[in-house]
Amino acid sequence: MQDSPPQPPVPTTPAKPPLSARLKGLIDAYGPVAITLYLAIFAINIAAAAIAIRYFGWQPESAAGTGGLLFVAWASAKALQPLRILLTLTLTPLVARLVGRGPRDVSNDEGPQPPEGSGI
Predict the structure, then answer these.
(1) Is position 4 within any domain?
(2) What is the per-residue burial (b if ≥16 Cβ within 10 Å, else e) of 56-75?
(3) What whole-number percentage of the chain has pLDDT above 90?
(4) C-alpha closest to that of 18 among 85, 100, 91, 65
(5) In whole angstroms, what is the distance from residue 54 CA to residue 17 CA?
(6) Is residue 11 a part of any domain in this protein?
(7) SS3 for 55?
(8) In this structure, is residue 25 part of a structural domain?
(9) Residue 81 domain-assigned?
């Protein structure tokens, strides 16, 4: 019986964190830019869904119909949330660079500090 040579260990790549963890890290690093971009994409998503629904022929005739239209638009935006998060993760560094705001260094962030000389 022949012994086969030992197999070299297979290198493993670390698993990517989930989208929600990556979005939280992005918000920690870019702050208002990331939040504003995410909410802007969300608003565009809802508006585009509502316009598309009306374009394809559903014309609400009452307040309840308009509420139903907005609910369907919100539900479609909710269904597309993973894509919205990916788009935010991709575009935030670019938008931050365009508006002149780089990422914050959150590794040394100790939170708000009391004013100098306050005795706290």
Answers:
(1) no
(2) eeeeeeeeeeeeebeeebee
(3) 29
(4) 85
(5) 38
(6) no
(7) helix
(8) no
(9) yes
Query: So what's the pLDDT on residue 107?
Result: 61
Place of tokens 């260094």: 105
Domain count, the chain: 1
pLDDT for 94-103, tens place per residue? Answer: 999 898 877 7
User: What range defines the domain where residue 60 resides?
Assistant: 47-99
Q: What is the pLDDT of residue 108?
A: 56
Pull the structure tokens for residue 89: 């993760």
Number of CB atoms found within 10 A of residue 23's CB: 19
**How far is residue 77's CA from residue 35's CA, in Å, rounded to a whole number?**
16
Given this model, what pLDDT does residue 38 score? 92
pTM confidence score: 0.65
Spatial contact of 73 and 42, defined as CB atoms under 8 Å apart: no
Of residues 3 and 79, the one with the higher pLDDT is 79
CA–CA gap between residue 27 and residue 61 (Å, rounded): 41
Long-range CB pairs of 44-51, under 8 A, 24+ apart, other chains included? 45/76, 45/77, 45/80, 45/84, 46/70, 46/73, 46/74, 46/77, 47/73, 49/73, 49/76, 49/77
